Structures are given as structure tokens and as C-alpha cells.
Amino acid sequence: MRIKTLLLLLVLAVWLPAVLGLGLLARSTYGREAQDAREDVERVARDLNTLVERELDKRVVMARTLAASPALADGDLQRFHAEATLATRNTQDWAIVVDRRRQQLNTQVPFEGYRAIERSPEAHFVTGDPAVYFSPRALVNGMPVLGAFAADLHVAPPRYNVAIAFAPAVVQAVVGAATLPEGSLASVIDQAQVIIARSRDPQKWVGKRASPYIRDLVHANAGVFLDSVTLDGVPSLTYIAKTNAYGWTVVLALPQSALLKAARRLTTQVVAASTLILLLSLAIALYGAHRLGAVVVALRQAATRLGDDEVPPLLRTGVVEADEVSLALHDAGVKAHEAARLLEQRVEEAVRRAEEAQARLLEGQKLEAIGRLTGGLAHDFNNLLQTISIGLQVLDRTLGDFPKRRTLQACIDASRKAAAVVRQMLAFGRRQASAPQAVDIKDFLLRHQELTERALGGRARLVAAIAQDAPLLFVDPAQLELTLLNLVFNARDAMPSGGTITIGMRPAEGCETATLPAGRYACLEVADAGIGMDDATRARAFDPYFTTKPIGAGSGLGLAQVRSFARESHGDAQIDSRPGEGTRVRLYLPVAAAAAVDAGRADAPRHVRDGMPALKILMVEDDVLISSVVVPALLEGGHQVTLRESADDAKALLETGAEFEIVFTDIMMPGTMNGIDLMAWCAEHRPNLALLAATGYSTRRPAAGVRILQKPYDMEQLVEGLREAMRGAAATSG
Asked: What domains lie within the chain, and their CATH numbers?
């Protein structure tokens, strides 16, 4: 048998199963796509039906609530008009009251100018469960309207119906916001099979009745698929959802052309692929038969050259298998010549890596030795310092005033500074036991605000930028406090002319913590706009006792303690700095697990809202750090917060008539008024406002009955203060 014949038979043996497989794959794919389309249509219809039912539920609940009003039971329609107007004030809905013959009340019209309007005998009137009905023409505005009717159950049979009326555009908006399958049509049909909303040409079809066979299937309430033609003549696969509690349903139609389009696409792909495979296979077979003899000869020659320790040339025969054999022969020749050189390179690389590992080991041993030495010295010196400090304090208390008292006080201050240095040395030497627990950074910053402000000494401005989704940290609070103080001190010293220091926190990205143990991390960042660092300084910034400050201005242990704290917490620290562009120190710290959060729940702040209704709060605070932490926390709790930085600005805002429920103010404020003056003004001009004051120290006290919140406070104390202030205001007004 000739080689050409064998190749043609091989082509057919491969091509026929391939065509069959492609056909089966296309059929299976079409079946899956069709089933997916049906499931998608059913899911979207159910979801849309649920959304529509929620909108109806809102109105029905409001109608039932108003129907239970004592004013309606007493027949006091004027008082009921006021209640209904208040209930629908911030909505586009309105309320009506009807009896079997007349519309007695409509909140679209003032009560004094309204006269009862006769209703048609067929007008809707419910005596049992609430219902939602469509009317093509409202009695007052003449527009199409929907009404959620609820019976007045004060008497039997009911004397009135209360209806919450709303435009069909409300349901149309729900349909318009839904994500529908491409090309599909969604319609919302009420219990009378009237089209209430439609995703295509709603102006043309809203208010018209659905097709008869659609109405029959809606009555069956089966949730079925059927082949149908839409009102605008499009053949479709239609799904009718089960009716909701009000007898309404959603009809979702997917054009048949969308399903046939997938079938045509798959068929075209199968035919094209089969034809292409056949043509290419025949061409390759004919070409291979023509060249096969030459290919075999060339491969034999290449093998001979390889046996002679030469590198065979690469062949381009057009036959993949032959080219692969040629490539293998060529690679074997190249590898034989390159083996010695590659071996030498690998030996050199292994030596280099061993030297680098040795250098890292020596560096680690050096740092460990420094840490042990530092910790040991600090521990021994701490005992001596304790004796000196106690002795100086005893002298200070027993000697009273004497000429050298200033010298004694200087010694006491020096011992305190030495104690701070010892704490840093102990932290660097890891001689202090770490006690990690769940820490809320927002609450932490509030409790330590006065400490950080005193550390800055008015030379810089401290701002917090804590992300709303910032998690709880799992760290030692005492070491965290020392770390933040060290970073704030460094940032302050980097800005001799003053500036802004920003403390921020956010969830860490996965790429930032790839080298850390598996788990969740947060990024705590302290940034300044100071002089920055060059590359050489940044490379040594974390080294113990390395400092660029003048002698006596720094110990060189601050940043070493920062990195030691981060790594002891199973995290890490990084510095990003350029000369003249400021410095950012980032700490990647572990996030508290659920168990740690539960264990520390007694110390953790409760939710800012904590069961209270949402309040409209006017906050008066000139400290940016406090406001940048408190305002986002209150907003997260659902409250509305307006911030003013002085009592004068707050008074000006209140004079405009702006509506608030409570004023939360600091007492010590810049400007012509302080917090006490503002509260006195509120008591005289806005007596309905609840008042809450916060202070760290003040010689003046606010008026009796005003709730005082002592600084530093946490969010739990703030919540309790707001609650007590609102409770006191309610008791006073009552």
C-alpha cells in the first residue's frame, strides 16, 4: 500500500470522529445554553415579582396603619388628614379615604377646600384583607393610579377604606431598574390581568389587558413556560411567575430568535470547523506524502552528524513530527556542548547563594545579640532607675520648698525621660511580655487624643483617616501606644516649621502581605509632609541606635521599636520616603479573629447607633483629630452629622432655621463664643434641642441639666451620652 493511501485513510479516520464529536458538543452546548436561558428567565421573573411585591407591601402596611388610626374611628377626618399627610410627607404617595359612595378625603387637596366626590358603583371597596387595585383615571388628578386599600376595622361592616395611592411609574421604575436578559420583555400584571408596567413601550400598553391565554395561565398560578407571541408581535419563550400575595404576577418573554441565534451560531461553527479540518488534513496528507521521502533522508543525515559529535541543523520540513525529531536532535547536540558551561554556572550560583545566606545569618545573629544585650542592660538599668526615681520622689515630697528644688525637679524629669528610653530598649530587646487583644483603632485614638496632642506641643496638626471598613487589630495596646508615639514624635521632628500628620488605617491588600503568614491584615499608616529620607537613610532607618538627629535629641531606638512591635505581632513595617516628599511608615498588623473579638467584647465599643433611632446631630469641635474619627463613626451608625469648627459658626447655622435634634459641642472653643455660651443661646432661642457637652478641663460649668462628657471618651460613652441627652430633652419637653 502506498504512503499516500495510508495518509488519506488516516485523515478520514481522524476527521469523521472529530466531526461527530463536534456535532455532539454543539448539541450539548445548545442544550446547556437553552436550559441556562430558561433558568435565568425564571430567576429574573421571580426576583422581579418579589421586588414588585415589596413595593406593594410598603403601601399596604401604611394603609393598614392609617386605617387603625383613632382619628378615623372617631370620624375626625380633619385630624386624620393631618396624620396621613405627615405619614406620606417624604414620598410621592398620597392617602385617600372612601366609603362605598364617595371619596371623603384626599391628601393631595387641603382638607378645608375639599368636597366629597361621588364614586362609581363599581369602584373598589374592601371589607377583608387589603388589596391593590389599578384605576385608569383618578378622581382628583385624572391620571392613572394604583391604590393599596385597607378596611377600617373599627366597625363591622367597615365604614371606610383607607388607600395609599401611587403612580404606576413606581412599579415601572422597579421594572426599569431590573437587569433583564438581552432582548427580553418583562410585564407586571395585576389581579385583573391589566398591564401595570412593561419594559418595552410602556406608554402604549400600560392599562391594557393581557392576552386571553395569558390570563388563563395566570389564574392557574402554576409558574410555567410556554411559547407565545407578545402583544407587539414577537414570538417568544414566555415564563409566567406564580402570583404574589396580591394576585399580581410577572410575565417575562425571551424572543425565540435569541435561542435560535445560539443554534445557528453553533451549527455554523461546527460546519466551518469540519470543513477546515478536512481541507487542512487533505493538504497536509498530500504534502506529507510528497515530502516524506526527503524528510526521512534529512533525519538520517542529522542522526549521523550527531553521532559524529556535531550539532545537527534544524529542519523545516512542514511535518510537525519530523520537525520535532529534528529539534530534539539539534537540542541534544547543543546540550552536549553546553553541559560543561552550564555546570560551571550552576556551581558559581550555588556558591553565591551560600555566601548570601551566610551574610543574612550573621546579620540576624548580630541583631539578636544586640537585642539580648539591649534588653539585659535595660532590665538592670531599670532596677537602678526605679530606686533613683523613688528616692527623688520621696525627697520631693518631704523637703518642701528649698533653694535647690529646681535642680531636684530637673533630676525627676530626667529620670522619667530615662524610663521612656528604658521602655523602648525593653521593647526592642523583647523583654516585655506581649499581651495582644482586639483593639478598635478609632476608639484607641479617641482615648489617647490628649496624649498625642501634648506630644505634638502645638507644632503640628494631627488628622485621622480611618477607613469605614477598618477591622479590629490583634495587638498589645501598650506597645501600640508606644509605637504611635514614636512615629508621631518622628513625624513632628521631620517638620520643623509645622504641618499635618495623618494617621490612617485600611484593610491590607493581598499583594502587600504576600510574605507574611496566612491571615487577614490591616495597614496602619503614619504620614508626614516633612523633609523625607534619602535611600541610604531609609535603608538603615530601622537599625537600632541609628539616628540622624543631633546628639541628645534621639536615642535611635524609636523606629527599631516600631519594627520590633510589628514583627512580634506577626506583621511587618515598611518605610516609603523621598527627600522633600515626606515619609510614610506602614505597619501591616494582624486583624483580630472572631474569638479574639468576642473575648475583648467588654472593652470594645458597641455600635454607634446601639438601638437609637437615627439622629440629626450638629457637632461643634475644633480638634480635627477628634472630628475625623467621631464624624465617620456616627455616619456609619446611620446618623446625620453636620460639623462646625467654632461656636460662632454653629450659632450662625442655627439662626438659619436648620433642623437638628441635638447639639454636641466642645466647651473650649475659638472665637467670640465658647461651648457654654452656645448652649445658653440654644436654651433661649432653640429650647427644643437636646444638648451634650464634651470637655477635658474648664473652670466654667454649663447650665444645670446639661449632660457632660469627659475627655477622653470612647464611642460607647458617646452613645450613652447622646441617649441620656435625648432622654433628658424628651422629659423636659414632656
From this structure: 43-273 (3.30.450.20), 311-423 (no CATH), 433-599 (3.30.565.10), 616-733 (3.40.50.2300)
What integer is the mean pLDDT of 629-655?
89
1: exposed, middle or buried (C-beta count within 10 Å: 0-12, 13-18, 19+)?
A: exposed
DSSP calls for 432-443: SPP--EEE-HHH
Could you list the beta-strand ranges (E) of 452-582: 461-466, 473-475, 500-507, 521-528, 572-577
Q: Give the strand pairing for 616-620 and 640-644.
A: parallel
Q: What are phi and psi of 260, to 5 degrees?
A: -65, -30
Separation of alpha carbons 371 and 670, rounded Å: 48
pLDDT in tens, 236-246: 888 888 888 89
pLDDT at 581 over 50: yes
The values of phi and psi at residue 662, to 5°, are: -150, 145
Closest CA to 529 of 561, 491, 574, 565: 491
Hey, how many other C-beta atoms are within 10 angstroms of the C-beta on 645?
A: 18
Main-chain dihedrals φ then ψ at residue 656, nearest 5 degrees:
-75, -10
Question: Has this prediction a pTM greater than 0.70?
Answer: no
Instruction: Enter the C-alpha cell of residue 107.
Output: 391628601
Identity of the amino acid at 356: E
Locate 357 and state its grid cell.
545566606
Question: Under a CB-based contact definition with an 8 Å cutoff, are residues 590 and 537 in contact?
Answer: no
